[in-house]
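CORE FACILITY INTAKE
Project code: CF-77B
Contact: R.S. (postdoc)
Sample description: multi-component assembly, two entities in total
Requested service: structural model of the whole complex
Turnaround: standard
Below are the sequence entries exactly as provided by the requester. Do not edit them.
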Amino acid sequence: MHPTRTFCEFSPTAILFILLLSCTASLGEETTGDVSNPGVESTAVDFAREVLPILSNKCFVCHGPDGEASDTLRLDTFDAATAEQDGHRAIDPSAPEKSELLVRVHSANDPMPPVDAEKQLTDAERDVLTRWVMQGGEYAMHWAFVVPVKQTHENLKDVHPRKVIDAFVGQQLRRANVDFAKEADRRTLARRAALVLTGLPPELDQLEAFVADDCDDAYERFVDQLLASPRFGEHQARYWLDAVRYGDTHGLHLDNRRGIYPYRDWVVHAFNQNLPLDQFITWQLAGDLLPDPTVEQLVATGFVRMNPSTAEGGAIPAEFQAKNNFDRVENFGTVFLGMSLTCARCHTHKYDPVPQVEYYRLMAFFNSTAESSLDGNKYDYAPVLTVPNHVDEWVAWSEVAAARDDLLNKAGDLLEQKTDLDAETRESWSKASHDERLRMIADESGPFAGHELQGLSAELSDRLAEFESGFTTTLVAAELPEPRETRMLERGEYDLPVGETLEPDVLAVLGGLSAETPRNRLGLAQWLTSRSNPLVSRVLVNRIWQRTFGHGLVRTPEEFGLQGEQPTHPQLLDWLAVELQDSGWDLKHMLREMVLSRTFRQSSAWRDGVNDPDNRLFARGPGHRLDAEVIRDIGLWSSGLLDPHMGGEGVKPYQPRGLWSALMHPASNTKQYVQDEGDRQYRRSLYVYWKRTSPHPMMTLFDAPSRESSCVRRSRTNTPLQSLGLLNENQRVEMARSLAARVLQAAENDSERLDQLYLLLTSRKPSDHERSVCLQLLQAQRDRYASAEEDAKALLSMGELPRDESLSPEEYAAWTQLTTAVLASDAVILLY
Amino acid sequence: MNDPIREYDLLMTRRQLFGRSALGLGTAAMASLLGGNAALGAPSDAASGVGGITTDGLHHPAKAKRVIYLFMSGGPSHHDLWDYKPKMRDMSGKDLPEHIRDGQRITGMTAGQKTLPVCPSKYSFTKHENNDQGVWVSELLPHTATVAKDLCVVHSTFTEAINHDPAITYIQTGSQIPGRPSLGAWLSYGLGSMNENLPNYVVMHAKTNFAEQSLFSRLWGTGFLPSDYQGILLRSLEDPVLYLSNPPGVSREARRSQLDALAALNAEQHERFGDPEILARIKQHEMAYRMQASVPELMDLSQESDETFELYGEDARQPGTFAACCLNARRLAERGVRNIQIFHRGWDAHGNLPKEHESQCKDIDQGCAALIKDLRRRGLLDETLVVWGGEFGRTAYCQGTLTPENYGRDHHPRCFTVWMAGGGVKPGITYGQTDDYGYNIADEHGEPLRPQPNKKDWTPGTMHIHDLNATILHLLGIDHKRLTYRYQGRDFRLTDVHGHVIHDLLV
């Protein structure tokens, strides 16, 4: 290819594209369920989706927003690229073939990028740039910075969203010449939906009812049962806690205990209540700034306090004031904008249009919260809210507290009116706490003796005392009366502030704040959740899709900026993003429609003739190893050990000795791991105590993040150490023997017991091959333990639960060996 | 190294078990099972092509096949171990001159002190012959002094961080704020494994009498890299590798039959769904089984000679001591483990430095020297890089009360001593120097150099921690600028946008 090529040469191709498009469009008007062309397409080079990624990745390091010298050519705007410089224009719309950009990218002698640049252009990229410049070199905004709209065919205006999903997915399948995979069988589908929505296999009665249900809406009703389960919120919360880096410790240096689990419990509660996601966001960012905030709204602001913190001797407060804020701004970027802002901490972003000063304006939203910059190593690192330790009690407690306030107001008024009251009593009333005032009212020899308020006072005192016995504290956000000064920091150094005082403001490229929006965290939340914000709904819906289908529509959920991956299904992503808003930010609605789609219901078997290992077409159902927590929870649930209790201080199941003490400072209060006893061992993994500098090894072994920084996509690794954990860890063995006891007692013969085992773990009965493998293993283990009763008892002693004495140790041990293997098998630890 | 014959045998065993008609693994699956490529163990979502096995270096020929990093957590005092400053004796107790402090920020622990009295080391230093001008070593390290001819002693290492958590996170991950992969994780990612029966990246925690300061799993963690590049703890308590032992009452034969059944069940799952990860997992279960034999063999010191224990000291018979960790390190190196790190805590001597450092040095001195001698006599030193150092140095001035016999020192970022040996570094040299107060990096005339961690300019004679990491990667055949991983749209690397390989140190 040569830069002097003229535009005419492209025309035939362009015409062909237009012809093809019109053909497919006419096909699409047949039925609503099978629309070939649900969206709208164009033939010109798409700057945002084709050109900008190349410019960003290959050119912007030198010619981007952070062009260091003023005379450096910039290619990030049309004006700059078309300006005359040294007698040339990088892009010359009036004579495209003379554009310096084309000359240089095709030059053998003086090429761009330079020969020694780390990143070179491919031929295909050179081709895109050439066609773009020849077409006039027009610029457009990066796709993710443009407000999404629903671009759908007329016929898809009034159908279920699930149909729209299938139409968009189907469109690409057809282009690849494949059809949807056949639907997964009912049992597989039931297990898949239950694991995706609740993180647990389906309850057996629900499963069997669904399988036996011939009605058309059987699956829909099954899904609704799952959405209504309290297990739903627990499972969905986990992804959010990864993103916001929730931990039960401060995270730095001593890594002491931090009291913030009411926040975690609120997240579970909010998902179960299906709190609209715009409110979910607003409460977390700014619940304290809402009028008369409720307990829930205040607890939610724990989000603002989630940054790791320190009180290391010698730490300089100003340094950590800056570091804490960096962490919050960058977490905010990842969680809500799907963008790394880290670059702009030290210099204007190399790729995205984020000037350094805007980073610090954004930081100004967070710079005036009231906590000190060092945590004092305290559990109740102020400001904190004192609340009942169970989320279910918050409303009742709030009502009692409101009744108390009401009573005290009335009592105060009464005192005002009393003319015969001595000054001393008046004085002590004015200084008294709430509790003391209640006691004064109840006092038979006090100023209210004989008054009707006395009975109520005593009752409220009792009820409040009841609540208070179960109080805990949780970190919350509060604003300082006077804001801290925020200035830009040169190179991100806390001790190098430069320039003027900055007012809080948002990123200009994403649309500014309106004049009436308050310049505080509440205004920030309003901006995020407004319909003009191009990113938030896309970012959220992409993560919802990711946890349903195994991969996001954007495969880099942490990066929607110029350097992120393009969506595999751009119009579908935008459609879903708008649908999320249209539905009133309804999470359950979005999940429901996703799991009801044909796309989700496909078999997840890999297909002959479809060469798509990463499933970018979604030509098969989801399939991947389950997360650490789900693997553990399946074991607890199937063995009947799972304690359904929700919420409260993190639980500490078995953990090998010495893991914490080998790391921790002698003064740390998380130096000793004190294992819990009884039911707390068997709570859902969501509640496992999260020590950020040393999380539970069965979690990290299976890719759980440390929660020191945001994680919106876990890796899925496959290691020998996972095998050791699955087969040897205390709790795994304890689950296995409990499961063995359960199936031994559930049926009379091996065959029925195997049925029961597989029904619990895979929602189906075993295949003939599985049955024969299991029976063979069982026989080998029976032979082994027949002459080794002591070994059998030793195995059955692992874990704290006493062995079921009614079972023969040999048989019990043989079955335990079998259940251990089946629990570790891929039919159990994978989603498929 | 991987043994294809044994692999094949295992595969055949499984095939017989599966039965021909039922399953019969496909050709591709056979290839992946027989391939013995570490990439198989890599996750499906690894973003880049690195991760295979390399013995000749990823970007250029490697000088070292492996690294043993002896990490002294807390900040050892360069004043009392390596950086001999006789002129400080004349200034003892007098305030540190303002021009020497030169604007250095001071931690909150000594910022409130009325004076910053100069605190000379109470220990005597001897000049030991090396391959250059000789090297001064304190009396606290008599054994290490005997390998002076092997050491490349860098007096001009520096950092910006002044507190432990940020400083140790910085030197280990290239960033003061948590979230980035560790040096070891980068090495695992870049180099892959040479031994499939042992973890590729092994971390040990040595015992100390002063377990001050915390360590964090992020120091050997993977940050945003896939988590299988994380360091695996080799422990002296209970199972050396977590969950290594079978449950009580489960024999190795019983586990074998369990694994055979598991492989058959998983093969059926693969037959149904065709996901190649399932085959990879069958292989991981087999590796775990082999690891259950190879780790106890590794930890069994009964075949080590008395002479070896004389070399390492009797401490080496006690599991978990630094000497025992050094002996383990040599055994790991022999078995092809590429990435070994020993953390020894207790160097944070704000007060009672003499008592604490004497104990600390006694813990490590003989082990360090023995490791080098042992590697050398086995022909492994040339291909093994040994690194010794902490996260920062200690101040020239006293923290707390200064007496001739007792003193303490605060954290000091501007200079500290790190030594390296073997694996392509020049043996028997010193590099860089500090001023008369051991406070600033200086040129040969004692004038301060004031190096900055600036990516464009490197100040000869100095070694920022990014330079140290760049040099370590270089010796292992990796260009620190090219070992990258894209996360959040950016190609991250260990040395951020900094780091220079210090060629002056290389053979």
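Facility notes:
- The radius of gyration of chain B is 25 Å.
- Chain B has two domains: 1-36+253-305, 75-185+348-505.
Invoice: internal transfer
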